[in-house]
Amino acid sequence: MQMLPTTFELIRGALKCDPTLGPADRARILATLRNGKPAPEQPTNAGPRILRPKIVAERLGRTTRSVHQLCQQGILQKVKLPGRQRAAGILESSLIAALSNAE
């Protein structure tokens, strides 16, 4: 179903007046109206990926204790969240670097 250009311009103007919508949201809504189907959403980079010590141990074929020892030696990097004393996990990038250096 095709909408009239005047209707499309009216909706565009209403979306510009809405302060809760950002430019990306506005463009996505207008693309959906124009094409008739929703536009694919762009993946967002949430930041570095943090792995639990058990998963790292499984990938390395070692125990969790040896994973913690690798962290103490500086081979793997633990991540501490602000205001916390204990680490939340291990950076996946440090695991990948350690695996590539081992080969």
Task: Describe, in plain words, how this protein is organized in 3D.
With 103 residues, this protein is mainly alpha-helical. It has two domains: 5-35; 50-102. The protein contains five helices and three strands, in the order H-H-E-H-H-E-E-H. A three-stranded antiparallel sheet has the order 1-3-2. Helix 1 packs antiparallel against helix 2 and helix 3 packs across helix 4 (64-72). The N and C termini lie far apart (58 Å).
Topology (SSEs and partners):
Layout: H1 5-17, H2 23-35, E1 50-51, H3 53-60, H4 64-72, E2 78-80, E3 87-91, H5 92-102
Helix pairs in contact: 1-2, 3-4
As a percent range, the share of strand residues is 5-15%
Determine the mean pLDDT. 87
Query: How far apart lie the N and C ends?
Result: 58 Å
Poorly predicted segments: none
Overall geometry? elongated
Structural class: mainly alpha
- The number of E-state strands comes to 3
Domains (count): 2
The succession of helices and strands, N to C, reads HHEHHEEH
Spatial arrangement of strands, main beta sheet: 1-3-2
Largest β sheet strand count, sense and barrel closure: 3 strands, antiparallel
Percent helix, as a range, is: 40-55%
Number of helices: 5
Radius of gyration, whole Å: 24 Å
